[in-house]
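Running low. Got one?
___
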Amino acid sequence: MSLRQLLLRLPGYFGASAPPRRLWWSPSLDTIFSVVSWRGQSSRSPAHWNQVVSEAEKIVGYPTSFMSLRCLLSDELSNIAMQVRKLVGTQHPLLTTASQRSLAEITELIHTALLVHRGIVNLNELQSTDGPLKDMQFGNKIAILSGDFLLANACNGLALLQNTKVVELLASALMDLVQGVYHENSTSAKENRITDDIGISTWKEQTFLSHGALLAKSCQAAMELAKHDAEVQDMAFQYGKHMAMSHKINSDLQPFIKEKTSDSLTFNLNSAPVVLHQEFLGRDLWIKQIGEAQEKGRLDYAKLRETIKAGKGVTSAIDLCRYHGNKALEALESFPPSEARTALENIVFAVTRFS
């Protein structure tokens, strides 16, 4: 799932030149329930995630991967890029659009840099099967340098946008990411360690920092570049926030809902289904279940997974995923139908669809 793909569709959906529409109604409970019911039926329409992405790419106009060598090495595209640079400092509308594409690429650069940095191996936990120590050390150095290089390019691109509010938004998103990842690393559970005693509300706060802030604030920044008012910017922020939360919960659910799951497949003990399971079960019983699933000091994930699936954590996580999906759709409801809106909605449907 490309962050850039989402950001590029938002300006096209809201319209870079059209005046922003304002909310003029507050939905009643009956309205909300009817909308939820309609969404439950529509969520079955996208057959596959790849189909949704493919349809969205047609609206964007090109594949979502910024690492396409064909695009990077194309003489025609390079020539166009050089000509567009000459417009810097002018008021030509084309320049505004090229700033929005740059923002999308900057967001993906930051996201990719974070993933690269997360790939750093803890050398203190190396096992003989992981590889020679020198090779692992070299790999860590490459990961650090590569991630820093991507971040440096992202910062340079932000400066070229020449919009202080956008720079502030993306800088605060990066700060949120660092804070969220630091918390994850400080509380991450080893195989033989029991998870922290946190509720789902605390889990949401931590997850927003590490997974939702970048997309939410990038969506808001896209509306700022399109010169929409604060109300429309907030709608974009809400869409990005709840879309990211729904996507993260969907990812956490995969080890518990896949039809064919390897017995050796591990899962995060601080993931949404596990946190909800612990919340329903109570701390004492949860500690007991952890103990029963341990063999020779190692956690039997297959046994623990079946125990969690027998409780309420998985079904509650599915409901929570759909809740955030519905909140993301609510951010789009006040705007007229369009291909871009349909693409944004289909992304939510694909994430919240469970067989």
